[in-house]
Amino acid sequence: MLSGAAKRADNPVMMNADRPTLSDTALVEAARGGDMRSFERLYRLHSSRIMGICLRMCRRRDVAEDCVQQTFVRAWRNLGAFEGRSAFSTWLHRIAVNEVLTYARNHGTRTETSDEDVEETAESGLGGGGEFDAGEVVDVERAIAGLPEGARHVLVLQAVYGYSHEEVADMLGIAVGTCKAQLHRGRKLLRERMGLEGSG
Amino acid sequence: MSGNFTNGPGHDPLDRALASLPRDVAPSRDLWAGIRADIEATTPAVAPAPAAAPSHRWMRLAAGFLLVIASSVTTYVVTQRSAEEKIQLARESAQKQLLTTSTVDVKQASFGGQALLGAEYMRAREALDAEFQRQVATLPPVARAKLERNLADLRRTASEISATLAEYPNHPLLQELLLSTYQNELALLASVSHVSVPTLNQPETRL
């Protein structure tokens, strides 16, 4: 006979005995019904990933945080339009990308990145036992932050967050061919700036 | 998405460097308060969920009472809209349909497997479901598929919450979520049948 803990381990909706965890689908359904606490749970689950996307795309922490906030406000207002054909996280990421693009359109693309932002971005994910140390991760972040906007957006979404060319093209409103060209350009520039020419 | 890597970073140093980056970056402050303020400033206030129940027994009784009222009102609305004979015919027709071409799985509504919802509620739900099946059959395939998918999503959600509630029978949030989901299901069924269903603002259980 399975123990309670073992049964919970087999149940995808359980994480620990004290705090039941529901899937995104259940939380979205509840939030659609006006349950703000369910929507807050969705915020807690997804805000860090969205912050990562926004920060790497727009390069400024204050702007990225504004975009994260607007992403969730817009998501709440449009929950009824979410049909569940994609994952909720994907739907949120699309809104976030749109927020960053809207900000860039309204405020130009002169956003300056600071060394502090780059280091904070890198440090926030360290400790995972990877083969790269903090200094190397900071170097990668700095190299990405220095890419031209188009190449940076594509590279972040495709190479860092794993979206396909088609998905990235759709998110950014560009042709798939343009997406591939920007990725190639971004990777080439990164190799040069990281001293990796001739590798890969 | 995607959103996940289909291929590993491999041996390319650039790919390995990119794979070493943290995907998640915590905001420097909790943004929830601002988000909530923005939402509340632009949307109608949502009925606040009650705080932790002072007495679980009292909550059960109150919840059961409210559910009976809601079920009665729902039944009343349905029977007002169409004659009883029509409902009976629709029910029989739907039962035959469900036996043969069950396109949407109708499951018994329950609270965490511990107790069933009232018989009156179930009858109203069955009647609405029969009318739903009848109406939806007349819709274009795309609209029909969308409605059936939405209904299936709601029933899957209810099933998931119910299973979770079986493990945490005293969890007030889960009870609220389950009632809210059942209410949404009734609202969807009723919307297709052009019948309005009153909104429940309190958590309800009939145990």
TrEMBL record, chain B:
It comes from the Bacteria. This is Uncharacterized protein.
